[in-house]
Every structure is written in structure tokens, then in C-alpha cells.
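Q: A reviewer asked whether we had any structural model of the full assembly, not just the individual parts. We don't, so I'm hoping you can provide one. Inputs are below.
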Amino acid sequence: MPDAPGLELIAQEINGVRDGTVTETALEHGRASLIVDPAKVLDVLSWLRDTPGQEYTFLSSVHAADYLPAAPRFAVHYELLNRDRVERINVKALLPDPAVGPSLDGPPAEEQLPAIPSCVELFPTADFPEREAYDMFGIVFEGHPDLRRILMPEDYEGWPQRRDFPVGGDPVLFTHNEIETPRWFE
Amino acid sequence: MADPTLRDEELRDEDPLFATKRGVRPEVEDPLAPLVEAGATIETGPPDVEGELEPEQEVMTINMGPHHPATHGVLRLIVTLRGEEVLDLKPIIGYVHTGIEKSCEQKSYWKAIPFVERMDYLAYFFNMQAFCGCVERLLELEIPDRASYLRVIHMELNRIHSHLVWLGTSALDLGAISMFWYCFRERDAVLDMFEMSAGQRMHTRYFQVGGVFEDIPLGFEQKLRDFISILPSRVDQYEALLDNNEIFLRRTKGVGIVSRERLLELGVTGPLLRAAGEPWDLRKADPYLAYGDLEFKIPVGTVGDGYDRYRVRLAEMRESVRILEQALDGLPEGPWMASDRKVVLPPRDELSTSMESLIHHFKLVTEGFRVPPGELYYPIESPRGELGCFVVADGSAKPARVHMRDPSFTNLQALREMCVGGYVADLIQNLAMLDPILGGIDR
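A: Here is a predicted structure for the entire assembly that you could use as a starting point for your response.
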């Protein structure tokens, strides 16, 4: 992983190409992070992939996280890897929750979902992980070829891995409680 | 057809079935005989009508699974076929999704270990290492050398176990049923050792944050030495069985080739990538635990067909034996748990003498240890590729987010490109050589 000056250099060079892309850098537990503007995440990823001297060509993982009650609530993490130098760098795009606050136009606030451009064009491996992040957190990856639920049933409602989604469960159906279990037959 | 107006006993007399029971051979009339007498020609075999579509030209979409013996779990494949040729393939997953990542958020760190273990159920030591290693790095906790070596020993045994199950079931898919029994014989020996050291055969919860929960018992070393002295000859036997099998060779050689560049784009890691000629192994590239001290090779293939994948995994079993030998010879003496009492339970005998130990014990068991805020992605090399664990700690005793980057989940994306253009039989072969574990895919 790049050291602290190396990480600052990367951030400066990206901001030199397009200002305001990298908002912050972090280096903790030996993990280098670039915190970027979600609208420009594709610029960062393609810069890190294609620039000579960087060449983070392998995308290990894409995953989302919910930092409730922090202010930009969601984050999408991209774990990039350079296999020649065995260096990893993390790109973290913080996404605010559009459902907070009154909605002036469009659908009601609770139906608005956070959105970020999809990186499947750049890294084909992101196909399944992005679908999983959509499935679990309701983060819309714009431009994804096939954005459907992947692990949960297709008619499922809600985004189960959000922090405010309750851990519940369906009652287990036995013969002794099949009458009491409400509307189990539906 | 009997006359429906007949009474029961008369019907019974005429019914050929009842007649047979009484030892009389029934005279069954040929239903086509009157037609043949009338001069009709009766055709047998498939109809050959001009102008209709040939059966092998028809495009057909079928479901394979979710209950299919060759899918290695509850995997559903929507396959578009033209005759025997696979035109398109779409994997549908999620049938064994159990919400483990969500459940981990409700448990304190030490209680989450049994949950993550159950994701990839053939690589439980690797799941534990990914999670414990991640939490240890978040805590900045060093584990003792002996724990590190014990973890390597158990993980390499687990790798052998996982590859043995893969070899047995994959050979079974390709029609070699006896391989299954032979592989499970050795697998049982591995499970016996796990039972010796951890008390459980599968899902052992042997690794703890801070080390391993108990030292290996007396007799474990001898048993392991016996096992590693016998395993290479057994692997030779498997090789001799399969490498001289014409059916196996013709079904695997030259099938399912995807180029190395494409595999890297698709994020494929592990034996699949190494079979395509890319020597990428995190144990070598980015050594963790005691792997830096141990000497071993990374087997690579040449073309990346099913046969190469099989060869790479067999060679990995032999390399694991070498690692086990060295780890056993170099196993250092000393504690097997870190001594940080804020994280690790105090020894049982201290509880009756030390008030402080009792308080630590009480706090650890009731609340669990707290992890300072931070987040980390920690990758290791599982039998199927890069297994990464992403943990977000918010300063409490429970993780705020646990995510596993499971290699089977990512590798499954390459299945379509392996299969399209091949035959249905090749699809079975590709799936077998991909080695997907649905518990890991669905989590």
C-alpha cells in the first residue's frame, strides 16, 4: 500500500486532473484510503487503473457500508490492487441519504435511493458485487447492465443490511401453531 | 377393453392382470394388429417430416437446478440451449442466503466468529482467519508465534480437506464414483485431527481473536506426521486413477478455457487463475501469519482448461504437505494466546485467585471486548481464491459491518464465459472445476 506521502501525491495528481475529486485521504492500520466525490468516482478508478506508475488493474472487492448516524450515511468501497507491487488502495465514495428531509418534487422521500455511477464498464468483476450492494443497501448503480436483486427474493421489499432495518424473522411454522400464525397460507 | 356392464367376478376373469395371478399366461392383443391387417404401414422411430425444424436447431431455455446433484449446492442455472450446445447461461443465486453479515452486526466480536465460519462451509478455518485477522489488525494485537504456526497447520489441513472434497465430488460429476470414496477416506482423517485439537469435526471455532483457544493435545503431532507421510502416496494414487482414465481426460482437456487477461478482468483468483498461468497467491505475494518463514511453491498451469485446474489443485495438496512438515518441525514453544487481558480470556486457574482476572473474565463474557473505531479490508488466500473480510468498527463491542468478499461469489461470474459455445456435458465439467461453494456465495 502507498505510504502517507505517496497517498498525498496520488490525491494531488487526481485533483490536478479534475479539481475537488478527492476530498480526503486516510491511512489507518496500513490501509490507504481515498475519500472521493461519488459523482467522479469513475474518473478516480480509471485514473488509478490506467495511469503509468499507478496501474491498480485488479479490483478485489466492491462493498457498501451504512454509517448511520453519520452524516453522509452510505459509502461504497472499492478495493484496488496492483499485483506487481502488491499494493492495495481503497477508494471510498461517501453517499448522502436522499430520503432525509422533505422532497420537493419527484417520488416521496422514503422512496428516493442514493445513486452512484456503475464501474462495470471499467471492471467487469463489479457486476455481482454491485448487485449485492444494491440488494442489501438500496444503492443504485447507474449504468449497471442488469441491476436486480441478487441474494434476496426478487419481490422482497426493503434494504435488509441498512442499520435501521430491524432484525426480525418469520415465525417457524409447526402443526401446533399453524392456526395462530397469521395468514401463513398466503 | 372389458365390457363395463360385466359383473365383478366376470371382469376379474377377463382381466389379464388377475389371470396372471392365477398362473395363466394372458393373451394380450396387439393394439396395432387390426391396422396392420387392414394394410397400414406402421413406422417406428422418430418422425422425419420435411419442412419441420430439426430438433437440434431449436433454441430451448431450461432450468438447471436449484436441486441438481451436479451443481454442488443450491445453484440455479438458466441455460439456453440449441441441441446440446450452450448458447447462454445465467446463474441465479440466493437460495441459501442466511443473512450472516447482518447477524454478525448483532453479536459481539467473539460471538460473531461461529457465524462467519459457516459461510464457506469447506473453508471454515479460512473464514475464521479472515475475520480474526481483520479484528486483530484493528486492535493492533500481535498474536504469539505458536498461535501463528498452529493457525497455518490448521489452515493447510483445511485446504487439503477442501481440495479432497472438491476432487471427490468433481470426479463423481464426471462419472468416476470410486474417487469419491477414496477422497472421503482421507478427508475423514483430517476431520479426526480437527476433532482432536478443537473438539469439533467441522465449524470448530478454534481460532480466537488473539490466537487459538487451546494448544494441540498430546498425540496430535504424531497423528499429523502419520497423515502427511501417507497423503503424497495417496495423491499419487488419485493421479494414477484419473490420469489414465480416457473419459476423464477427454472431458477435461481443452474444455472451459478463458484467457488469463479475461479472468483477471472478471476478478477470478485462486486455482482457477493459477491454472491459466498467473502465479498469484497471497500466501507468497503478501505473506501473513507464518507463511513468510515457510518454503513452498505456487503450482501454475499452462492453458487453463479443466485438466490444468485439476493438476493445480493436486499439486497444491502436495505443497500443503510440505508446508505442514515445515510448520510442524518449526512449531515454536510458548503461549498460544496473546496476553492482552482486555481482549483475551484469562486462564481458568487465575479466576479463583485473582480478583482482577475475575473482573476481566466477567466483562469479556458479558459485554465482549471493544474495538476502537476504524475499518479494514483483510484478504487471505482460501482454497478458492482471495477471501477478504471487511469490518467496520464503531468503538462498541459489536461490529458495525462485516462483509466477506467470498472467492466463489466472484469466480462464479466467469462460468458463463467458460460454458458458452460448449456442450451441456462441458457445463457440468466447468462447474465441477470451478468449485463453487454455495454457502460462501449466498452467505
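A: Points you may want to mention in the reply: Chain A has a mean pLDDT of 84. The CA atoms of residues 49 and 55 of chain A lie 5 Å apart.
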